[in-house]
Amino acid sequence: MSLSQADAASPLLNGNLLIRPMRIEDLGIVHEIDGLSFSLPWPANAFRYELMENKNSRLWVAELAGQDGVGMVVGVIVVWLVVDEAHIATLAVHPDYRRRGIATQLLQTALQACARLGMRSATLEVRAGNLAAQTLYRRFGFEVVGRRRAYYQDNHEDALIMTLSPLPCA
Ligand SMILES: CC(C)(COP(=O)(O)OP(=O)(O)OC[C@H]1O[C@@H](n2cnc3c(N)ncnc32)[C@H](O)[C@@H]1OP(=O)(O)O)[C@@H](O)C(=O)NCCC(=O)NCCS
Fold first, then answer.
1. 14, 55, 66, 137 - which has most CB atoms within 10 Å?
2. Does ligand 1 lie within 6 Å of residue 104's CB atom?
3. Residue 145: inside a domain, yes or no?
4. Which numbered atom of ligand 1 lies nearest the CA of 126?
């Protein structure tokens, strides 16, 4: 289903949002959201690999109930389980649906699930100039613990390494 501006303008959340594991039929819209969200989006087959083949990967989507009752995927989070650390591989919300708490709910669900899976901490890289994402992560308690110089290939921007420990429990 395509995402229309009319849907974006309608009253949202409050029971209309479902965070659920990603499914194969979500690949198209997830790839679209990724492309709208990053200057270096993942290759077309990357989400398929994470979903179907990477046993250490966990993927959730945010699905919004449309006016017709049909769900629309508007956000995605991918986490890699690395020993006892949850690595946030990607997190994105469709541009028309931001600032409604969707990333917060995706992150909350993922971190709680990772805690139940035995993960003790979470880590991620974020562009030094991505203040929106950093603000989101700080609200969860993530702290900057390091910097990778010129980490991003497109503009040689630094990456900040942020970690959270312990993880929030359900
Ligand atoms: C970062 C991103 C995932 C946030 O998604 P979202 O659904 O809009 O986030 P939320 O609505 O849950 O925001 C939670 C809080 O984060 C902070 N925040 C989010 N977007 C912000 C922005 N553009 N500017 C400042 N603060 C922001 C705010 O504190 C916000 O709370 P508030 O709306 O009550 O002020 C989204 O902007 C996105 O997809 N960006 C492009 C991809 C990206 O940068 N991903 C992160 C890679 S590390």
1. 137
2. yes
3. no
4. 48
